[in-house]
Amino acid sequence: MKSVNKISIAKVSDTNEIMKFINDEWKNNHILSLNKDFFLYEYKNKKLLNFVIHKNLNNKIDGILGFLKSSSDKNASVWTTMWKVSKLNGSPMLGIDLLNFLKTKGYKSLMSVGINKDTEEIYKYLGFNIGLLNQYFIINDKMNKYKIAIIKKKIRNKIIITDEKKKFKKLKVVDLKKLNFQKYISRKPYKDFNYFKKRFFNHPIYKYNIYGIFKKSNLLSILVTRVIKHKNSTCLRIVDFYGDESTLNIYSSNLKEIMYKNKHEYIDFFSKGLKKKIILNAGFKVLDVKNKNTVIPNYFEPFIQTNQKIRFFFDKGILKNLRIFKGDGDQDRPSMI
């Protein structure tokens, strides 16, 4: 066998070895090391995989960097996901080499959600921008006991509705075609019909509810939610929001009624880039992660009843065009079977 020592985009034939690498080097019994169908759903790209890999002189993978595309465009924005170098590899620079290789592939922008605090200095060294997502929430003020959240002081919600003519509707995949995605081409990341169809409508494990706001027959925006269950209780998480952002208050008004009807403890979402006035008019409060009297958990697999910070990086572009949500990259992904 000819020995190799190179960085490349992985092929579908590398799937089993990458899955084993994830199990051995990333996390034992991770869903992406056990569920091949889900692995391919996430990363298969025709005959290739959306992974940068390094093979050592024995032709064995000893470094990986996964990535997910925000659209079907050739130069789409991408989120990096699983970035890991084998403990047996002697090169401390290999991880950076993997990332630099991905940068050469012509993608519009590189970003990642959920980065480790310990890696921030690496991203800064590479010239990336670092930040924190904000977490917003609306508490179910008709409940007295909470099993998921910690609420020691009642918080009232006030939503300002400015346009009663716009209609809230649960979407089918065909409805997506009524949104003018090209209108938001300057967004970072830009998302398209194919992204939303695959990411949320066709997800093989999680069930998402996708809603839209219409003005007559025109779809103005899309909002994606997922119900999360724990201890015989539930909460409602917004994982993506795209389009006309002035419609957020119409969503929150309708989601609030869904929350009351289904006895969800709260509605929450993580994001970066939305204007504060839009958030407040929609009735959301900004979570103070240091305040232990109000706890809106982030982690459910396994469940951790604490407030958590979510860090991100993005490589370039105007900050005002940046929109990041909990569903971006691999943040709203099952980690266990």
Quick overview:
This protein is of the alpha+beta class and 337 residues long.
Rg over CA atoms, rounded to whole Å, is 21 Å
Secondary structure class reads alpha+beta
Helix and strand element order: EHHHEEEEHEHEEEEHEEEHEHEEEE
Q: How would you name the CATH homologous superfamily of the largest domain?
A: Gcn5-related N-acetyltransferase (GNAT)
> Uncertain regions: pLDDT < 50 for 5+ in a row?
none
CATH class of the largest domain: Alpha Beta
Structural topology:
Blueprint: E1 6-11, H1 15-26, H2 31-34, H3 36-43, E2 44-45, E3 48-55, E4 61-69, E5 78-85, H4 94-103, E6 110-113, H5 120-125, E7 129-132, E8 134-139, E9 150-151, E10 167-170, H6 193-201, E11 209-215, E12 218-230, E13 233-243, H7 248-262, E14 266-272, H8 276-281, E15 285-286, E16 294-295, E17 311-314, E18 324-325
Parallel strand pairs: 5-6, 13-14
Antiparallel strand pairs: 1-3, 2-3, 3-4, 4-5, 6-17, 7-17, 8-14, 8-15, 9-16, 10-11, 11-12, 12-13, 14-18
